[in-house]
Amino acid sequence: MTSTTTALQDPRSAPPLRWGVLGPGWIAGTFAAAVHGWTQGRVVAVGSRDRERAEAFAARFEVPTTHVGYEALVADPQVDAVYVASPHSGHHAHALLAIAAGKHVLVEKSFTRNASEAQEVVDAARAAGVFCMEAMWTRFLPHMVALRQVLARGEVGEVVAVQADHGQGFAHMPDTHRLHARELAGGALLDLGVYPVSFAHDVLGEPQVVTALGSLTRTGVDGQVTMGLGYGDRAQAALHTTLWARTATTAVVAGSEGRIEVATDFYRPTSFTVVRDDGSRWTFDQEVDGGFQYQAAEVARRVAEGRTESPVMPLDGTLAVMRTMDEVRRLVGVAYPGE
Asked: Which residues belong to any copy of the Gfo/Idh/MocA-like oxidoreductase N-terminal domain (predicted)?
């Protein structure tokens, strides 16, 4: 078995960028640690409706400026780009707020609650001429860069099947937790299922057919969903997500001449093995610390180039993912307040 790595730009080589964090939750902490640890960028400000939360985040990550309220954060002249890390239900309004202030935006996934809200954010960003991207960090990780290279070289032939799952044991969370709250756009799909859906889109694009079977929680959000995506006459994707069990979180891309087996957790820095029908195989395995730094570096590079989108995670790609998830929610019977 041969271990192979791929050439990838070091996130530290990206130009510096001054970040403002909107919403100091745990994922924002992961982002701040990655920016400070493996890029030239800095988180220079944090905004929260809760002064104590903002100050605690600032102290932990050595952020020099705190703001009470999001309006003050996006108005801060030292901030180049805003990382929107609020709950899904707030992404639309908070991204629009930052865009209106002339800031570049990196919006946590899921990008918004639905495709309609996503389109409004995309239209606003394009009209304002600012950079905008969904924070689907997986797309920028070394193993995903290498996986796309394998597919481009045709090593496994024509792709005919994709499998991916993402389940976590969150059943113990209280009904008031954001994962179970309809008003916060909770449920497995937007929080966990977005990873396998985006993976399938990365490999195969937007499906022509979407099927889904789901089970709801007592609060009315999706607790578990199995999805089938259809592409033309042959290719299909089988995807699964759940709040009720820790699943294998692996992925497989099967082609007419072989397959790619992506190890757990497929959405984090990991390895994969190419298994060809001729009996040959090789493994990609590149050690990575952190992970969020790759998407932060992508934003910094594109902003420095004067570009307003990433070719790796383009806005049209985000809109396609949102359309797929809208159809899945329609099929399983999940709607959020105000939709």
From this structure: 17-134
The 8-class DSSP code of residue 169 comes to: B
CATH code of the domain in which 111 resides: 3.40.50.720
In a domain, 338, yes or no: no
Domain C-terminal end among 112, 135, 158: 135
Q: What are the pLDDT tens digits along the chain (339 aa)?
A: 344 555 578 999 999 999 999 999 999 999 999 999 999 999 999 999 999 999 999 999 999 999 999 999 999 999 999 999 999 999 999 999 999 999 999 999 999 999 999 999 999 999 999 999 999 999 999 999 999 999 999 999 999 999 999 999 998 889 889 999 999 999 999 999 999 999 999 999 999 999 999 999 999 999 999 999 999 999 999 999 999 999 999 999 999 999 999 999 999 999 999 999 999 999 999 989 999 999 999 999 999 999 999 999 999 999 999 999 999 999 999 999 999
The answer to whether residue 109 is catalytic is yes
Q: Look up residue 175 and give its amino acid.
A: D
The pair of structure tokens assigned to 277 is 């029908």
| CB 158 within 8 Å of CB 199 | no
Question: Distances in Å between the alpha carbon of 306 and those of 120, 330, 332?
Answer: 22, 38, 41
Active-site position among 42, 104, 109, 323:
109
